[in-house]
Design brief:
TIM Barrel, 2 domains, globular, RNA-binding, flavin adenine dinucleotide binding
Amino acid sequence: MDDVTDKVFREIIAQIAKPDVMFTEFTSAEALSSEGREKIAHKLSYTENQRHVVAQIWGADPESFKKAAMYIKEQGLDGIDINLGCPEKSIMKRGSGAASINNKELVEKLIDAVREGAPKLPLSIKTRLDKTQDLTKEWISFLLSKNINALTLHARTARDLSKVPANWEEIGKAVELRNKLNPEVTIIGNGDVRSYEEIIEKHKVYGVDGVMIGRGILHNPWLFEKGAVSQSHGTKEYMELLIKHTKLFNDTWGKTKSFEVMKKFFKVYIKDFRGANELRQQLMGTKSYEEFCEVINNRALR
């Protein structure tokens, strides 16, 4: 989730309900291995509080993957994830993301390149279902035969995007394949999970070793609260978290990131209370952290 799972948002989540593993923003291996690396290096920045942090990279050039893996190792991240599942058209046109599905020759080279650049770092693959069940079985079987530590499967095809429900039955089949072909590989399921209770359910029903949360964290930042029943959080807590997040965004990025980026989080926090739509519209009209604070302070004075 580009411009979403940045260092700031990960820190907010780490402080309130931390998952076992966090992934960086979607980062180009080619850019990481270029002279202009400094322009995107912030995508891999993290705090010690966020560990374990895995660098998520994409691309289609093995040499760039090798150099990117060496850089990631130098930065002290805890692992590398190759994204073979992004359905964004601009990414797929470059032969990357979901366009890599069943391009076995390329994928093998990418995996080997990462292993050469950072042989001791854990390596995971994130991918999607292929067009048919038979092709998915072939694809997953191939990945399980490679030198990887974990496989994350999003239970939709690239064409599906998020228009259909996630097919967790296919994830269950991937677990069965893992059990037969390579029991050492960790299987992580992804798709349509929005509560900690659902995480436990997916583990019990489909046998996955873990569950990856994407958009679900935007519906409930406290999603990873452990317990029999996740706690509910009221408007006051959401507003306090919004203010904390926005201040940390400003303190961390300053003028290096547009305040517009922060605005995509407003709907995460401002919802389900009287006057929420009006307040959200007012904040969407702000152009800086100072203007944001002015709107919030005026609301508090009412």
